[in-house]
């Protein structure tokens, strides 16, 4: 599958919050967070938004790729924390970049979002529907977590990463992806409930009480007379069964990586770097062990960035690329896994 990453970019918010600083505002410790996850600090959006960071990362990736925005045929953004339900983050990037010839849309595959974007772009290339794609992972998880739930809020950070991928003679060698909706409840965040005058009060005792419904002016339709006096329901926040997610990751990711390498006819020893989704250092160590590969081949930035869901793989890729550690011809693996449950792995030549 001929396609190559020709430019990368990333953007992180200016505010850095350390574990020690979190100790001052909640019942947690640097020791608890760092020993269980490896995370020591994270960037938290203040003025920045998912869209503004996505645009910044995209502008850098396009500049580094040395292409004009009009050459982009496809913009795909992996995100679960877009600033708007619509228009999509991808369409907002399109406008900001003046990439008027692109088709633009978002995908929701959580922490596997960037890998899903790569897979879709690859399929567009193979079908002859695109030559140049901008793939972005962008998240503001700090607005999705409950800052009163110490078991989740300490894990996440904000940021965006982007890559320009172009149809070429070499590059993406193989991609696999998967989903298991049956285990989706391990990691979830509900959308806003139906809250019209005709809906029963959501998530309250009254939900089940027939007498909360009374006939209003809407003929025979149930109608909540108190609807306009009620405050809007509070938004829902991210919920996670940490141990279930841990088990899923350490079982699924090594299998996906082994599968993508085997199907591409490449040995793990031939791979220079494995860029894994930055959820937790213990997950990365477990994957390294199962693949019998040294930790030096697994670059990490979760210590200073935390878990940035769909943005974590492209941000890490950009950091390693900017440090000059990727040479032409290097074989690398990218792997993402997360809510859905979803996962994806790709092997490519730099
Ligand atoms: N500070 C101090 N104590 C805490 C904190 C905190 N921030 N959070 C939870 N605790 C306490 C709990 O209350 C509990 O106390 P108790 O025993 O008195 O009840 C104790 O620590 C243990 O809690 P567990 O949830 O059992 O902790 P566990 O050892 O499972 O570690 C963790 C939690 C780090 C999330 C672990 O399950 C894990 O690594 N899971 C992987 C999932 C992951 O990385 N998710 C990231 C997002 S998903 C993704 O990106 C794919």
From TrEMBL:
Limits of the Beta-ketoacyl-[acyl-carrier-protein] synthase III N-terminal domain: 105-181
Gene3D superfamilies listed in its UniProt record: 3.40.47.10
Pfam families membership: ACP_syn_III, ACP_syn_III_C
Substrates-to-products reaction catalysed: malonyl-[ACP] + acetyl-CoA + H(+) = 3-oxobutanoyl-[ACP] + CO2 + CoA
Pathways per UniProt: Lipid metabolism; fatty acid biosynthesis
Enzyme Commission number(s) from the entry: 2.3.1.180
Domain Beta-ketoacyl-[acyl-carrier-protein] synthase III C-terminal: 261-350
CDD domains in the record: KAS_III
GO CC, any one term: cytoplasm
InterPro entries: ACP_syn_III_C (IPR013747), ACP_syn_III_N (IPR013751), FabH (IPR004655), Thiolase-like (IPR016039)
Chain segments annotated as coiled-coil in the UniProt record: none
Written domain comment of the UniProt record: The last Arg residue of the ACP-binding site is essential for the weak association between ACP/AcpP and FabH.
Family of the protein in this entry: Belongs to the thiolase-like superfamily. FabH family.
Protein name: Beta-ketoacyl-[acyl-carrier-protein] synthase III
Species classification: Bacteria, Bacillati, Bacillota, Clostridia, Lachnospirales
């Amino acid at each position: 599958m001929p396609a190559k990453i020709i430019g990368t970019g990333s953007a992180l918010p200016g505010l850095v919050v350390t574990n020690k600083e979190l100790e001052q505002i909640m019942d947690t410790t640097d020791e608890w967070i760092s020993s269980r996850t490896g995370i020591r600090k994270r960037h938290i959006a203040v003025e920045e938004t998912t869209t503004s960071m996505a645009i910044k990362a995209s502008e850098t990736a396009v500049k580094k790729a040395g292409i004009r925005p009009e050459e982009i045929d496809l913009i795909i953004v992996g995100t679960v924390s877009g600033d708007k339900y619509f228009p999509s983050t991808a369409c907002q990037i399109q406008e900001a970049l003046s990439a008027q010839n692109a088709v633009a849309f978002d995908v929701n595959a959580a922490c596997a979002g960037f890998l899903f974007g790569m897979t879709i772009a690859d399929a567009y290339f193979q079908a002859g529907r695109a030559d140049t794609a901008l793939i972005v992972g962008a998240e503001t998880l700090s607005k999705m977590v409950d800052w009163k739930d110490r078991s989740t809020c300490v894990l996440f950070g904000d940021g965006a990463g982007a890559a320009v991928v172009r149809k070429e003679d070499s590059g993406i060698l193989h991609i696999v992806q998967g989903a298991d909706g049956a285990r989706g409840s391990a990691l979830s965040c509900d959308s806003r409930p139906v809250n019209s005058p005709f809906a029963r009060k959501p998530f309250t005792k009254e939900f089940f009480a027939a007498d909360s419904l009374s006939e209003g002016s809407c003929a025979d339709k149930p109608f909540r007379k108190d609807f306009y006096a009620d405050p809007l329901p509070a938004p829902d926040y991210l919920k996670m069964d940490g141990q279930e997610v841990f088990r899923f990751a350490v079982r699924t990711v090594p299998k996906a990586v082994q599968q993508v390498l085997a199907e591409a006819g490449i040995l793990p020893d031939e791979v220079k770097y494995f860029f894994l989704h930055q959820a937790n250092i213990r997950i990365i160590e477990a994957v390294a062990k199962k693949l019998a590969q040294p930790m030096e081949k697994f670059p990490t930035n979760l210590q200073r960035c935390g878990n940035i869901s769909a943005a974590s793989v492209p941000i890490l890729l950009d950091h390693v690329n900017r440090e000059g550690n990727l040479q032409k011809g290097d074989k690398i693996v990218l792997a993402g896994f997360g809510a859905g449950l979803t996962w994806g792995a790709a092997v490519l030549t730099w």
